Structure formats: structure tokens, C-alpha cells
Amino acid sequence: MMDGALMVELAPTRPGAHWLRSYGAMLRWEVVGSRLLYPLLLVSQVLVGAGFVVGFGLLIPELDRAAAQYLSTGAVVMSLILVGLVVTPQLVAQQKMQGSYDYVWSMPVPRSAASLATTTLAAVVAIPGIVAAMLVASWRYDVSLAIDPTVVPAFALTLACGSLIGSAIGHALDQPQVTMLVTQLGIFFIVGFSPVSFPADRLPGWLATLHEYLPMHHMALAVRSSLTDGLVVMTPRSWMILSLWTGAAALFTAVVLVRRR
Amino acid sequence: MTLTEARVETASAHSRWVFRVEELVKVYGSNSVNDGITLEVRPGEVYGLLGPNGAGKSTLVKQVMGLLKPTRGSITLGPHDLVDSPATARRLCSYLPQAQMPIDSFKVNEAVEIAGVIRGGKAPDVRRRSVALLKALHIEEWGEVYGARLSGGVRRLVGFAMATVCPGRIVFLDEPTNDVDPMRRRLLWEQVRRVADEGSAVFLVTHNVLEAENSVDRLAVIDGGHIVAEGTPSSVKAEFRGRMRLIVMMIPGTPDPVLPAFVRSSTRVANRLVVLINEPDVAASIVWAQRLTAQGLAEEYALGATSLEDAYIRLTGDTGQGTT
What is the reported pTM? Predict the structure, then answer.
């Protein structure tokens, strides 16, 4: 004996309630959907976070206190940026390669709710790497961090900005292979040529100037100033540039998410 | 409310939720994948869209689901314009895509329940319905098994359960029986009928003509972006009324035999030779088939009524190799 029909009506609920309910359901979908990946992600995030601190330390044998702080906080920023800018678009590309993209994006939920669920998961996944980087830093270089309340907006904005740019890339590029290539190049540029783990004045002048307008430098400033005492100064201009990038990326993501080919 | 009033209300509720596609055109570059498609599906009806690979079937469904944007034309469901509001389309339509569902790390029970909750069902209702549905499809023994460990056929059935646990006003099923074993196919078709009986419209996309003939109320044959025939299975094959089909299994490696004058048309796929004949020529055709067997050219033969497949082959020129 079968239960009766469960046909779903366009419920006359408030849009806010529908959004929240959808966000909750999609979060569950995402959490269950990637749980086989967790052990792998956990290990890789911890290795990246810790390895970054230890590995870059090998380049410079005698670290002074400021350099050690730079390196340790750089690892934290790197974890946050890579999860947003690299893991997020690769998750979207993976859906496209598996052929599940059409199903996921035909689900009866607001696309902003689905997208935010993915970002939420990315944020949680970033935590072990960040914790590992901090622990290893304090053990290896005896770095003590001075955490102030701006840590909340700094982490949130860095992660949101990275994830939004990342998902915009993932959705905008039709070919998943192209997405993979672009994100590989992104890693190369961010790790090697962005003032995240070293100060901007080490870069050639033109590149340093370019980074004044790109988000990575300001992400690093925000996170670094919230974790250390006077190592760098986060300026209102940096907050503004970071917010502008986040807003622009949100707008662009919104456009590509509702775009129909 | 009297019974008559109730019936009238049911009827008007039904007509409120008619699904209509009008003059739908989808152009890629200079290629019209859908070229002026018009069709209508009513609640309670199982409607089949048949056509060879690349005929434009999935393109049509993706436009309904808001994944592709029509170049021209309209898609409506009851009072709602689905082209204008893809968000409404996603809430009112449920969808089983041709690709397998992304459920590697889901247990079967979880996949169906979460899909139902995402579709807007309440958790306890969804769970009850999910248990009943898995049982009806005879896959309840896999309830606690991860998707990654399922065979293709069971995974397909789980996808069907995900799409119908909280069905929309219309349910799109793109090749639902792919990889499914014959016994469970029958169970699947029973559930498809049940979804329709409970008031949804069912829109079936397939190139499996034999299955469609037995399971749909009405169908359209699409080829080259056009609808080339539409109606009940009987009406679509009506031009073949008064004809019979003779199937001769040729011995591998033998050449095509010379066809007698009474043969109206013939197709050979591998060793299976299908000829259509008029009813008065039945006796002569059996004599001919017996002679082929006696000459060692054929292994066996069978005579039967013409099927939708004969009409389909004439309409599309597609021999349906591998799908029959």
C-alpha cells in the first residue's frame, strides 16, 4: 500500500522562509554529497596549511619575529584564498564533468541559497588548514598571535570574496577543462606572485601597483592585521577595495547563475 | 459538495494545470534544434516524446527546466509562464535527467529523502513515501547502501524515486529505464502510471519505441527538430492498419534474399529482417519464409501485428538498432 500523493504546490510561504528552508536543505545535500571527500580534504588542507609554514621557512634559515609572523599569517590567508578561488570552481567543474550539473541546477531552490550552501561548506573545510597553520607556526617559530575582533569580518570577507569569484569562474566557463586550467594558473599566480606570504615591496613596481587593485593583497592585509599586533596596518581603503570586489563578484555570480544558454 | 460538483471541480483543476509548448524554436548558430514545436500535456496523462539521438528531445526538456533559453515560442504550465520565470518552472516541474544522479556518497534512503525535502516535502511525509516507493520498485534492500556501490540499473531507479518522491505538476523523465532489468522495468512503469493517476502529468523522453507503445497515453515523434507525428500509439500507427509484419531471423553471413512482389517494405538490422505485408498475403509470406528456412538461409520466422516501431522507422528513417 502506497501513501497518497505528495505533489508540491507553489506554497504561499514568505520568500524569506522559502529561502531559509532551501538553504538548509541544500546544505544537507552538500554535506552528505561530499562526505566521502572529507578525509581527503582534511588531510590535504592540513598538509597545505602546515607545509606552507614549514616549507617557506626552509627558504629563509634565520627568521626574525616579523618574518615568522608574515609567514604564519600568510599560510592562513593562503588556505582561505585557495578554498574560495580554487576548490569552489573545481567543485562546479566536477559537477559539469559528471553530468550532474543539470540536475543540481534544476532543483527547486533559489540559486543564491544553493550557492551559499556550497560556500558555507568551503568555509568549514578551510578550518582544519587554518588551525594547522597556526599551531605549526606557534610550535616551529614560537610565534604568538594577537587576535582582535576584526578577525570576523576579515575572515568572512576574504572567504566570501574568494568563493564568489571562484563560483563565478566555475559557472561562467562552459568547459570544465578550461576551469581546471584557469584555477591551476590561479594557484601559480597567487602562491608565487602575490604579496600574501611576502611584502608587496619585494615585487617589481608594476606588479605591486597591479596588486593595489586586485583583492589578494587586501585579503592578506585584513587577515594579517586581525591576527597580529602592528605587523601591518589595514586601511579603510583596503576594506573598501575588498568590499567592492566582493560586491562585484556577487553581482557577476548572480548574473551567471540565472543565465540560460 | 455533491459528487457531480466534485467531479466538475476535479476536471477544472485538471484543465488549470495543462502544460503547453507553442511554436518553440531553439537555434544554435545556424542549426535549429527545436524548430516550431507545439504540444500539450494534461494532468493525469503519460505523454511520450520519441525520436532518434540528436532529434532535439533533451533540448526541449532543458528549456522547460530553465537550463536553456528558447530562441522563440512559449512554454506554460497552467497560469504560469515558464520561460519568464525559470524559478517557478523548477518548483512546479520535477526532472530525471538522462545522466546518472550525483549520489556516490549518499545512502539510497538519504538520497531520496533529501531530494524530497529539497522539493518542498515535509520530512516525515517524504520518509513514508520514500519507503513505499523503494519497496514498490523492489530496491528496498539497498536502502542503506552508498550510491557509489550501486549497479547502473538500481542507481537509475533511485534517480526515478528522487524525481517522483514529491512530484511536480509535471514530471520529466529522460530515458528512465536505461540499464534497468526487465522485471523492475515493469515495476517502474507501474509507478509512472501511479504518478499520473495521482494528478501529475508525466512527460517521458525516450528512444525505446516498444516500451513507449505500452506505457504512454499519447506520444509525439520528433525528428530534425520537428514533430512528425502525434496522437495515441494506435492512431500513429493507423496507416499500417491492415498490414502485418513478418520477422525472419537470417543465418549470420547470408546475403539479403530476393523479396517477393507482395512485400510492402523491409528493413534488415544484423540478422533480423522485418518485412511488412498486406493481410491477404499472409499465406504466401509464410510459404516464402518456410522456403528460406528450408534453403538454410533463415533460422526461424514470426508473424505478428504491425507495431509502433514500424511507424517510427518510416517516420524517422531510424532503424532503432540496439534499442528494440
Answer: 0.85
